[in-house]
Amino acid sequence: MSWFGKVIGGVLGFSLAGGPIGAIIGAVLGHQLDKKTEDYQERYAPGDQERVQAAFFTATFSVMGHIAKADGKVTQNEIRHAENVMQRMGLDQDARKFAIDLFQQGKASDFDLEAVLRQFKQECQRRRNLMQMFLEVQITMALADGTIHNHERAILHRVGKHLGFAGFMIDQLIKMVQAQQGFHRHSQGHAGGHGGTYQEAPSGPSVEQAYQVLGVKSSDDEKTVKRAYRRLMSQHHPDKLVAKGLPEEMIKMATEKTQEIKSAYELIKKSKGW
Prior knowledge:
Layout (H helix, E strand, L loop, with lengths): L2 H7 L1 H5 L4 H10 L8 H6 L5 H20 L7 H14 L3 H15 L5 H12 L3 H15 L7 H13 L4 H22 L18 H8 L7 H14 L2 H7 L6 H22 L2
Helix pairs in contact: 3-7, 5-7, 5-8, 5-9, 9-10, 11-12, 12-15, 13-15, 14-15
């Protein structure tokens, strides 16, 4: 049985009981989850892959809902973006309903963001690349309207700092995700992106965008650019992320990101004649 089946069946839900993530799962399932026997705790301890997958999925969609409601109103672009994420994950009807209910939980006025992030970090057991992927997904939610407003940026900084990222690293990730979205739109040769706003796009991505995707400068030498490229590819490698606890449904998103990173690197190499 997959991690999702075990959540629905209550096994992982009971294991996560006693914390905010378990409480959210219980609310979505429609019943109170109390700590069960020690067997559940031993079998599904923090750091167990299926438990991490359940926590990642739960935190992802609930925090997305919280960010969407940050300014008091959820826009159609934000709803479309959430639906686009679910579509790209290939969720079946039950998993889609579960994700929607989690999104609604995150919109609630009593949603405890700090508590959810605290438990999520505990479940991840220092899996930094996994936490970075989580933060990048939240950045795409904040960008659903085409720009990040001050209140959304403030929440992203709260999320990032709770997960152990310094402020300058959060700002750097925001710039990189913005660049990746623009690079994706332009490389597709049409308007539109991953569920955000729709604008007229040029025929192809620029070299400057490619540098931003890798988080490097045009003045950097070949060794520096290659090092940044290899680091990003390692951080977003789908198999590595799934092994660390990324839900398998999100492997397509991770694959798309590595493809964009590789395309940006190839464009830089071509422009430099490397």
